[in-house]
Amino acid sequence: MRVKDVMTPAVVTLSPDNSIRQAARIMLESHVSGLPVVDGDGALVGVLSEGDLIRRTELGGGGPAAQATLAADERAQAYIRRSSWRVGDAMTTDPVTIDEDAPLARVAALMQERSIKRVPVLKDGRLIGIISRADLLQAILEAKQDETATGDDAIRRSILIRLGENTGLEGLDIKVAVSDGVVHLWGNVDTEDCRRAARVLAEGVRGVRGVVEHYSEPYPQ
C-alpha cells in the first residue's frame, strides 16, 4: 500500500498569520495535536504541534534555568517562539514530509525515527493530505488477509518462501511438513525468539490449523 491509499485528504490547515489562540482553538475543535501551516499560495511552510505550544509563555515556559546554556541568538529565537502571537513564529519550519507514492513502511519508519505522530503528504511539492499514526492503524485493520491457496502442499510452499524473507530465520535450514493443515517444524533453532518467529510465520499462512515444534527431534527421512 502507498501513502495516498490511506492518507486523510481533507486537511485542516493554518496560516502563518493565524494567532496562537486561533490555532489552539482549531486544534481542539478538530481533535488533532498538530496542523500543517501553508502560505497564501498553498505551499507548505511549517507544522504547528502540541510540542511547539507546551513551551509557551502562557504556560510559564522558558524560565531562566532552561535558557542558561544558550547563546544570545538562540535565546532570542526561543523567546520569539514562546512569546509571539503569530503561528509563523511558533511553528516548526522545514517539517518532515512524504510523497504520496511512498510505501507505508517508509512513513512508519519516519514516524518512529523522528518521534512524530503525523506527516504532511506532498504531490509535486504541494500539500494534498496528511497521514497520521491513526491512519496506519486503520490500514492494519483493512489489510487483506493472506490469500495463499489452501491445501497442505500450498501451505508448505508458502512457509518455505516466507522463511527467506527477512525474518531472522534465513540459513537455519528449517524443515517443514504439513498434515491436514497442521504445520510441523524441525531444525537447528536454538533461540526462543527465532522459534516464536517461525511459529508466527506459519500461523500467518491461510489454512494453517496449528503448529507443532520438533526442534529437539531429528527430521524424519
Structural class given helices, strands, pairing?
alpha/beta
Q: Remind me, CATH topology of the largest domain? A: CBS-domain
Q: Please state the overall shape, judged from the principal axes of the Cα atoms.
A: elongated
Spatially, the strands of the biggest sheet line up as 1-2-3
The CATH architecture of the largest domain can be given as Roll
Largest sheet: number of strands, sense, barrel closure: 3 strands, antiparallel
The CATH superfamily of the largest domain is identified as CBS-domain
Classify the helix fraction into a percent range. Answer: 25-40%
Computed Rg: 25 Å
Which features would summarize this protein structure in a list?
19% strand, 3-stranded mixed β-sheet, CBS-domain, Histidine-containing Protein, Chain: A, 2 domains, 221 residues, 10 helices, 9 strands
